[in-house]
Amino acid sequence: MYHTIQQRVRERVSEFLKLEFGIEHLDLKLEIPPQVEFGEVALPVAFDLAKRLKKPPRVIAQHIAETIGPLDGIEKIVVAGGGYINLYLQRSNFFALLSDARLDQLETSPRPSDKVIVEHTNINPNKSAHIGHLRNAALGDSFVRLLRFLGRTVEVQNYIDNTGVQVADVVVGFEHIVNLSKDQVASLIDDPQVKFDFYCWDLYARVSHFYEEDPSRLSLRAETLHNIERGGNPTSELGDLVATAIVRAHIATMLRLNIQYDLMPRESDILHLKFWEKAFNLLKENGAIVLESEGKNRGCWVMKGIESTEKDKQDSTTEESYDEDKVIVRSNGTVTYVGKDIAYQLWKFGLLGKNFFYRKFHVYKDGHVLWMSSSQPGTDPEPSPRFGGAREVYNVIDVRQAYLQNIVVQGLRALGFNDAADHSIHFDYEMVALSPRCCADLGIDLSAEDRKRPYVEVSGRKGLGVKADQLIDQLIAKALLEVEKRHSALPAQEQERIARQIAVGGLRYFLLKYTLHSVIAFDFDEALSFEGETGPYIQYAVVRSKNIFRKYAEEKPAFSLEGLRARMRRCPSGKFLDGAANNEVWGLILLASQLGVLSTQAVASREPAVVAKYAFALAQHFNNFYHKHRILPEPDPERKEFLLMVVDIVMRSLEASLSLLGIEVPEKM
RNA sequence: GCGCCCGUAGCUCAGCUGGAUAGAGCGUCUGACUACGAAUCAGAAGGCCAGGUGUUCGAAUCACCUCGGGCGCACCA
């Protein structure tokens, strides 16, 4: 709601500046004043104009305030400080509009109908998901929700690297360490006593030791990888069996956190459908990659580093100099990940001239279908949606892969696809690491050196990490204890449902409250907390407001929120809103109206934490309000309805905010 | 060696398209529950915003340098 006021002010002031001073194309800044005493919209524009007009800011501000004339919805304009122009809203008017407005979506001017692809999760299908993967998925999923909130059409992809080294390693484990046949692995997968992804987690760590013991065993990896890539042999079948089972496990894990996908493109299909050959030809034709005939990359097709030609002349012989070139095709003829990623990225923009086949992989409870790429035409009677062909692509990948992501974009540019390159966005974020204390909790021995560090990296290879499902289980167990304490009369099933919602709320908020470039040093105490700045704190604020309405409906069965909202549209609420005495309630209402502004900001800055922080601040203000006002015992019926309306507005804004974070609201807490 | 990120209260972090008194949570200490259920609230203590120089009417925020920490720079992904 607030953003429409902003928009109106922006238009009006721009127009005024043009007429009055002949100033155009000024980047007009609007601020939200730090306190309601300073009004609701602040313009620091006079500071910027001071130089141009050679007058003190205060004088300019005064002039604008006096001559701009009345603005719709604005009560008064006051100059403050060194030259701020502060606008004060007509509170009751704004309140009436807000009472009846939809807060769960943003009504905005027409948006581009172009599709946006968000790729996230992308976990190697060879072991269970860990805490680092959860950060990726939570960020990606919340970003998707934000884009949809702003009216964008979004396609969510989860890329499956089912023919990579990591899958090969686990296959080596099955074939050469535990010596299990394909059938035996299949029954392991079906065994309800075995959590297959956890089993692979341990096996994968064993494979690392296996190689360390005897490095000649690395030839097994190469051989296995080659078989998997080629397909149509027992090893590749085993690889496919394992990868598919692990993908199912990942889908289930993510579903626990309310994360869904539209499509899972697989690397094997990129290979079999010869996406790479197509991209390879394009790259060759455009001279984007060259075949090296000498040097250490002899026999490889490489993409030249931007400055490599000049750098080469300098001291490239010293040990510490690094190669600027990136190998795309190895001397043995196989393609690196980057090469395949260039082909995939081209497909996402609809620039490859090839397409996948598709088959249904999973149907979610709400009927939404998760599709998987395929190398063969599908047998589903229902045609698949049209995938790919986006205008804008976000790749949610941690910052350690920035270099690779740049190469991919560089590839697009070399092919002349500048628009696609400009709209290929690496949604980069910092890793989740483990605090030394956390390692101690996990019973991991750290070297004396590592103990001194602020954090240590998660390592799937070493089996060092917090498994996602284990963490979720732990959170649910803890939440369940609290629920049992408070709601012992509820049926067990209902208790568990609430515990799950609280656990997920806690975890998702924990993963989202940090800004992108902050390393999360994972700590059990912080992740398992339900008090203070946490998801459950916000959920609790909503539950409290729902309790008020539930209780009120018991007293007055005829009561309905719709009726209340309609009445409030016409209610003279000024006496409850105007004046300094009502600043606190007004501040709460104003804050509740700002979700649109904050979510726009969150998308523009690619920072879901903005919404997380907002939701928390709003919940905080609400809890304060809740303590100060006893609503149901309120004797004045008009005032009571007004207070109920405030609760409703805040509740709707909080629910919408939580939904952007992928957090549900429990019935009771 | 080169590149990127981080350095704000005891701890974990917001604030960074320059702006109105630097914020929150945790922890510590004081207080507040007879059902709109305290997973809450109120209050207190706690900061040369790593350091330096510059730009500006104005710098936690921008530029440059220094110091600390992390991550990249594979024919792994």
Summarize the structure.
The protein contains 28 helices and 16 strands.
Feature tags:
669 residues, alpha/beta, Rossmann fold, Isoleucyl-tRNA Synthetase, Domain 1, 16 strands, 11% strand, globular, RNA-binding
Residue runs with pLDDT of under 50 for 5 or more positions: 307-321
Mean pLDDT: 91
CATH superfamily of the domain at 165-274 and 342-426: HUPs
Q: Count every beta strand, where a strand is a DSSP E run of 2 or more residues.
A: 16
CATH architecture of the domain at 165-274 and 342-426: 3-Layer(aba) Sandwich
Major β-sheet profile: 4 strands, parallel
Helix count, DSSP H or I runs of 4 or more residues: 28
Trace the largest sheet across and list its strands: 5-4-12-13
Radius of gyration: 29 Å
- State the CATH class of the domain at 165-274 and 342-426: Alpha Beta
Counting helices, strands and paired strands, the structural category is alpha/beta
Determine the CATH topology of the domain at 165-274 and 342-426: Rossmann fold
